[in-house]
Amino acid sequence: MNFKRLWAIFRARNHEFFRDRAAFGWNFVFPFLIVGGFVIVFGSDSRNQYKVGFFPAQTGTVIVDTADIPQRFRETQYLQFVGFENQVEGLKRLNHHKIDFLVKAGSPGNEYWISETSPRGYIVEQLFKLSLVPPEQLTPTERRKIQGFEIRYVDWLFPGILAMNMMFSALYGVGYTVVRYRKNGVLKRLKATPLSAYEYLSAQMLSRIFLLMFTTVIVWFGCDLVFSFRTIGSYFNIFLIFFLGSLSLTSLGLVLASRGTSEEFTSGILNFISWPMMFLSEVWFSLEGAPEWIKTISNAFPLTHMLTATRKVMNDGASLADVSMEMGALLLMTTVCLVIGASLFSWNR
Amino acid sequence: MTQLLEVIDLVKTYKTVAAVKGVSFSVAEGSCFGLLGPNGAGKTTTIEIIENVISPTSGTILYKGKPRDASFSEEVGIQFQETTLLAYMSVRETLKTFKNLYEESADLDSLIELCHLEDFQHQYNDRISGGQKQRFLLALALVNQPELLFLDEPSTGLDPQARQNLWQIVGQIKAEGKTIILTTHYMEEAEYLCDEIAIMDDGRLIAQGTPEELIRQHGGEKSISLPGTALDGKLESLPFQARHQQDRIELLTDDVNGCIQTLIHEQIDLGDLNVNVQNLESVFLNLTGRQLRE
Question: What is the pTM of this model?
Answer without folding.
Answer: 0.77
